[in-house]
Structure formats: C-alpha cells, structure tokens
Design goal:
This protein has one helix and three strands, in the order H-E-E-E. The protein is mainly alpha-helical. The relative contact order is 0.12.
Amino acid sequence: MKTQKKQNGFTMIELLIVVVILGLLMSLVAPTMFSKVDSTKIKTARAQMQMFETSLDTYWLDMGDYPAKLADLYTSSLPGWDGPYLPKAVPDDPWSNPYFYQSPGPDGEPFILLSHGKDGKPGGEDDAADIIHQ
C-alpha cells in the first residue's frame, strides 16, 4: 500500500488572503505615517533655528553686532571673530531650501530667521506655511 506524503506549505488562496490583509492595513497606516513626516520636518526646522539663535547671540557677544549672513557663523575673516559658532556649515532647511536671514529684522527686531516651509514660497498654509523665528 502506498502512503502519500503530506506536503507542508500554504495554498495560493491562503497567500492571497494574507496579501489582501496586509494591503488593507497599509492603506490605513500609511497616510498617518506620511503626515508625521511633515510635522517632523517642521519641528526640525524650529530646532535648527533655535540653534542658529544661540550661535547668533554668541556671535553678537563677541562682535557687538549680528552677522550680515548666516555663513559668517561658520567662517569669517572679520577682526575679533572667535568662531566657528556652528559645528559645521549652515544647513539647508528640511525641505532642502536655504533659510532666510535678515539683520536687523523688518520690524526692529535684532534679526529674523525663517523657512518658507514645504513649498519653498513665501506664505502658505498648513505644512507649506512659513516658519518664523525672531
């Protein structure tokens, strides 16, 4: 008498059911996860601007005035410069756009720092809104 060997493994139907369940789970989870990416970039931009503020204030203490451009925090040939005030060159914002810096600020502040957000253009709403630090 012949005995049949039982084959171990999954049937095609079982595999399709697993793939469908994974697809449904991803369609529910993915939008939530991708929205977190944008809010994390906004928080990163704010943290970088706070680091710049500390460096700008230290520069001001040494030089008596704020720098003409952010790059002066890392390298400068001005007399009295005691930097670098940043550990490396000024990074771009999290969306790969340069930060906007002006000293003095438009309303009499010592300086203004801003990122134009996700769209890289002035103004905007939600994730594309300007992030301003003064």
